[in-house]
Amino acid sequence: MALPGTVRSADPVAQPPISGPLPTSDLLVRACRGHRVIGGQLLWYARDLAILHERRLVGRGGSIDTSPSTVVEIERRRGELVLAIDDWVVRNVPQHRLGATLHTETVGAVIDRLAESSVRAHHALMTLDAHDDLLHIAWHHLAELADAYDDLVRDVLAGRRRLPEW
């Protein structure tokens, strides 16, 4: 989630921009916030995941529906979306199996965590004082997840990492 034209790396050597079938974290976070972004089906899935996390964490009209049927439905739908993302990745992202280190999570699981973190950070921004440590922690967590996602995408596309097949 770097500013346009900046690189989020502490390395003196700049990392190459992501190019390939997977969207950048910037696009995913913008999609999670409901912004119109062009970039394919994964961005729609990310937005749908964010909506589910909003229902689960923030609620509608200030109240969270904690009825068991609602909670089960949200979790079921999240699982479906994660599987849909993972299915899309299997069909659209070339995998290098030989010599590539196995990542511990699927792309769907990572995007689900990114959507949740985005909801938490934006909710904190709207409800907490600007000097509140929880606000800064929420945004720091989102930035770390975004960086980790972008690193994962670069590594997968370069053949240094492979994704689990489950």
List the helices and strands and how they pair.
Blueprint: H1 25-32, H2 41-57, H3 68-92, E1 101-102, H4 107-127, H5 133-158, E2 161-162
Helix pairs in contact: 1-2, 1-4, 2-3, 2-4, 3-4, 4-5
Topology order in helix (H) and strand (E) letters: HHHEHHE
| Strand order across the largest sheet | 1-2
| Structure annotation, total helices | 5
Give the helix level as a range of percent: 55-70%
Unreliable stretches, pLDDT < 50, 5 or more residues? none
**Alpha-carbon Rg, integer:** 17 Å
Mean pLDDT: 88
Tell the overall outline: globular
- How large is the share of residues in beta strands? under 5%
Q: From the helix content, strand content and strand pairing, which structural class follows?
A: mainly alpha
Terminal Cα separation, in Å? Answer: 28 Å
Number of strands: 2
Describe the main β-sheet briefly.
2 strands, parallel
Describe the structure.
This protein has 166 residues and is mostly helical. The chain contains five helices and two strands. The protein has helices at 25-32, 41-57, 68-92, 107-127, 133-158, and strands at 101-102, 161-162. A two-stranded parallel sheet has the order 1-2. The two termini are 28 Å apart. The model has no long low-confidence stretch (mean pLDDT 88).
List keywords for this structure.
two-stranded parallel ribbon, 58% helix, single chain, 5 helices, mainly alpha, 166 residues
Q: In brief, what are we looking at here?
A:
The chain is mainly alpha-helical.
